[in-house]
Amino acid sequence: MEQQQIIVRKMARALARGGLVNAFGHCSVRLDEKSFLVCAAKPMGTIKPGDPGTVVPTEGALPEGVLGEVRMHQQVYKRRGDIKAICRFVSPDVVALAALGLTPKARHGQGAHFYPQVPFWTDPGLIRNDPAAVGVAETMGKAPAVVVSVNGAVTAGATPEQAVTLACFLEDAARVELAALSAGLADKAPRMTEEQARNRATWQGRIAERMWDYLTAGDPE
Asked: Strands of 120-121's sheet, edge to edge?
């Protein structure tokens, strides 16, 4: 368990270092089929070595002190046996694009992971009840991410490194989409085909591990 505690803390600090969270957000790793470990309920950049996360069941009420939106983690883990880690973050360009009612399309290498584009949960309310959390998870489906209206996004990966990297990739895809819109070329600019996106959206070459190394360099743990 201690190793998982360290990983969750490093995920949290990596997201903060990448500018993907401020006072809000959380991350988790799966422990087994019925439980996961979520980071401490505090601003992720302030999580220190030794700050314990909380074990949460995938079914049932959240433990005392766990943030309400962790319900989304529950619902994704329940539906996705392939998912081992989740990031919930509120990054600037994802939110700005969502305020326009849009999500990124697959226009560049990092955006290829989200072909054809990121699913969009349209309700702007916070996800603090089970029906809303179910709705977000079902909107996400088998995708690696979902934009949660103007409240940021959720990414889910087969490893903690992938979940964090997907969060970075999603923010960069939003940056590219906003640039296309600002240039007035969003309707004309190229978009990847399914084959192009499938070939480009690779994890080979230590893609996630290199991003992890970059974001955790100098981490206290």
From this structure: 54-57, 35-38, 26-32, 85-89, 153-157, 145-148, 120-121
Report the distance separating Cα 135 and Cα 169, nearest Å: 24
Distance of alpha carbon 192 from alpha carbon 180, whole angstroms: 14
- Determine the length of the chain: 221
CA distances from 19 to 84, 100, 215 (A): 23, 21, 10
Helix (H) or strand (E) holding 86: strand 85-89
In a domain, 64, yes or no: yes
pLDDT level of residue 12 (50, 70, 90 thresholds) = very high
Q: Would you give the DSSP letter of residue 149?
A: G
pLDDT score, position 221? 97
pLDDT band at 143; cut points 50, 70, 90: very high
For 7, residues 6+ apart whose C-beta sits below 8 A from its C-beta are: 29, 160
What pTM value is reported for the model?
A: 0.97
Cα dist from 149 to 19, 101, 116, 157, 207, whole Å: 19, 8, 18, 21, 28
Give the residue from 52, 20, 5 showing the smallest Cα distance to 154.
Answer: 20
The CATH number of residue 16's host domain is 3.40.225.10
Number of domains in the chain: 1
